[in-house]
Amino acid sequence: MKSSGSPRHAVIVELFTSEGCSDCPPADALLAQLEAKQPVAGAEVIGIEEHVDYWDHQGWRDPYSSAEWTDRQREYAIVLRSESIYTPEMIVDGTTGFIGSRARQSLQIIEQAAIPAKTDVSITASTAEKNKENLAVRVGQVVGAKDRDTPEVWLAITESGLHTAVTSGENSGRELRHASVLRRLQRLGAADPRAKGTSFALQRVVSLDSRWIRPNLRAVVFVQERKSKRILGAAATMPGAIGREYSPASEQTP
User: Fold this and answer.
1) Mean pLDDT over residues 141-145, rounded?
2) How far apart are CA 96 and CA 197, in angstroms?
3) How would you class 47 by CB atoms within 10 Å of its CB: exposed for 0-12, middle for 13-18, buried for 19 or more?
4) CATH number of 9-236, picked from 3.30.190.30, 3.50.30.80, 3.40.47.40, 2.60.40.2060
5) Arithmetic mean of pLDDT, 123-149
6) What does each C-alpha distance from 89 to 30, 61, 98, 170, 202 come to in angstroms?
7) Which of 13, 19, 24, 185 is buried deepest, with most CB atoms within 10 A?
8) How far apart are the first and last CA of the chain?
């Protein structure tokens, strides 16, 4: 199913997971494989691994967990009419959720998600100063938006290469390795669905936590409808593009 040079459409694959869940490591590995191998023709898989916090009282507190990601999964559950939230759950382009370790199903759903026309999104990064990055975001004409919904523009910062030696809970004794773990998610604004050209543009300096490994960071921008949660378009910096060490004397390139 690999592409032979044909254009790829960005597809956001979110994985709701936890280090306290024994069923999650295979799903984490699958997301990492989807990102690394890009096995779906026509799709550029952009992975976002979101660690929920409702497993934290089961014997192991996930160091990457956040109530914010749990709330995001609950919002999806309402829109997708799921009876409950669970891990591991993959959600593709905000429209389809399923058990996150099902490799064949993930390929089929990603392939379908890559077919429709997408909203054009671009993002560039340049080092502003130590632990700060200048990001320039542009969104073209909004494609596929529904009436009476708002196409919001979101920025996600992810970090790859993270791993943990788990000492208690369901995964006790295991060394867990992760895909692109979500570190920050923030709303940048809203695109204008009536615009015929550029529907949103922004340049912003973003602060980075000094504990994050800069060469492993990636910035992801996506357009997502507020009500339906459908993702209409996305883009990401190349791995390592926001990972340069800052030097005042270094040449700054956009």
Assistant:
1) 95
2) 29
3) buried
4) 2.60.40.2060
5) 92
6) 12, 19, 6, 18, 32
7) 24
8) 34
Please state the separation of Cα 118 from the chain's center in Å. 17
Q: Pull the structure tokens for residue 88.
A: 């591991």
- Spatial separation of the C-alpha atoms in residues 171 and 20, rounded to whole Å: 6
Domain ranges (residues) in the chain? 9-236
Query: The tokens of 51 are what?
Result: 């660690």
Which residue, 82, 90, 85, 74, is CA-closest to 29?
90
Q: Do residues 168 and 60 make contact, with C-beta atoms less than 8 angstroms apart? A: yes
Q: Which residues pair with 98 in a beta bridge?
A: 90
**Which residue, chain included where needed, has tokens 């997408």?**
118
d(CA 160, CA 206) in angstroms, rounded, equals: 18
Q: What share of the chain is helix, strand, coil (3-state, %, to 5)?
A: 15, 35, 50
| CB-based contact 105:194 (threshold 8 Å) | no
pLDDT digits (tens, 9 = 90+) for 76-129: 999 999 989 999 999 999 999 999 999 999 999 999 999 999 999 999 998 877
Q: How many angstroms separate the CA atoms of 142 and 124, rounded?
A: 19
Taken in order 104, 157, 200, 198, the sign of the CA dihedral is negative
pTM: 0.92
Helices (runs of H) and strands (runs of E) counted in the chain: 3, 13
- What are the distances in angstroms from CA 98 to CA 11, 14, 43? 16, 11, 19
Asked whether residue 171 carries a pLDDT value surpassing 90, the answer given is yes
